[in-house]
Amino acid sequence: MQVWSSGSSVPLAVDARWALVHATVDAPFLELTRQLSDAGIRVFGCTSFRGVFVPTGFERGAFALVGGADDPVAESVSRTIDASGARAAAKSAAIDLRTRMTRPDVLLLYATPGFEERLLEGIHDAFEGSPPPLYGGSAADDDLSGQWRVLAGAEAIASGFVLVGFTSPRPVHGSFVAGYTPGTRRGRVTSASGRTLRTIDGRPAAEVYDEWLGGALGPHREGGGVVLADTTMHPLGRAVDRVGAMTRYLLTHPHRVERDGSLSLFTDVAEGDELVLMLGSREALFDRTDQVAMRAGRGAQSIRGGILVYCGGCVGVTGDATAQVSLRFGARLESAPFLGAATFGEQGCFTGPTPTNRHGNLMADAVLFE
Q1: Most Cβ neighbours (<10 Å): which of 115, 124, 249, 279?
Q2: Residue 138: CB partners within 8 Å, gap ≥ 6?
Q3: Is the Cβ–Cβ distance between 153 and 92 less than 8 Å?
Q4: CA distances from 230 to 2, 210, 216, 219, 256 (A)
Q5: Adjacent-strand bridge partners of 365
């Protein structure tokens, strides 16, 4: 594998078979994807928030992780759809993928934000309830204006997804981590629909959440509005399973207070879910870079290359020091080539006794190839 930039004079490997492309929305990524596609290379990827994780740091531009004949085999399928057809389209795409490679060792999913759970349901259906471990993220732009794109061949998809399957004669590893710790504040969802959280313990959700935050939502309580910056370090968590003494949490990021006192989220919630106020710190967001690489690489003999997916909301906190995420991830890979995206949602597999693919926020996931 090798990392290639649209602004670099480094030639493509003559045996290049596939290319994972991550790019900022202002970069000439269509020029790069067309060049790769015209060379007969399978292309897949997404746009990224404020930069791309590369071995040298966090940089604006368009970049590709290129796989050759000796690297894992990759097949990809894509669909242009909206939320109404997401589950059926994902099932159809996953079935198409299965006809090409039977059962992938690992799946990679890039989607536009809004219907990720439906895509996971469709993939679950296609694999008859037992899909391979899946990782990936939701395409991002710089300002939530909808300029995000999923990349499939020479096409940039404004609403849809690309699903990639990898197979390899050597092990493929993955991990999905939160990097936040549970606090003492918790409550039960008593009214919700999709990504709208109406009440917690029978009270308006924004009122309860604001109490948990010590009044941080301020004027948004009355008039509504976007609260992303106020909630990044205190997402809501749901306990999804327990491995030994460790409880694992799936995070959701409240992004808007509505006038009726409800909260709009970036994941689905359901009545009966127990929500926990999670606690984060800037340093913990750097530390989890080590965690996601270490957990994915546990037991690996050597790493050939990797993929990093890291929440864009967390990049808003790490700021000018975000390059440290790349440098720490690369150090764990012992300088193997990798590429990463800052996303508006993360897909990953909680491995263990009952492996389950899930969609969360403010999380990180990684795929490592031996």
Answers
A1: 115
A2: 46, 110, 111, 112, 113, 116, 148, 343, 344, 345, 346, 347
A3: no
A4: 39, 10, 7, 12, 10
A5: 176, 309
**How many H helices and E strands in the chain?**
9, 27
- Cβ count near 40 (within 10 Å): 8
Residue 10 pLDDT exceeds 50 = no
Distance CA 126, CA 88 (A): 9
- For the record, the structure tokens of 161 come out as 């997804």
What is the C-alpha separation between 76 and 124, in angstroms, rounded?
Answer: 17
Instruction: Name residues whose C-beta falls within 8 Å of residue 105's C-beta, 6 or more positions apart in sequence.
Output: 72, 132, 166, 167, 168, 172
Q: pLDDT tens-digit profile of 206-258?
A: 999 999 999 988 877 777 888 988 899 999 999 887 777 778 889 999 999 99
Torsion angles phi and psi, residue 118, rounded to 5? -65, -35
- pTM of the predicted structure, to 2 decimals: 0.92
Check: CB of residue 198 under 8 Å from CB of residue 191: yes
Instruction: Render pLDDT for 112-145 as a digit per residue (tens, 0 to 9).
Output: 999 999 999 999 999 998 999 999 999 999 999 9
3-state secondary structure of 178: coil
User: What is the side-by-side order of every strand in the sheet holding 52-54?
Assistant: 57-59, 52-54, 338-343, 305-311, 364-369, 172-177
Q: Where exactly are the structural domains of the chain?
A: 2-177+283-369, 181-279
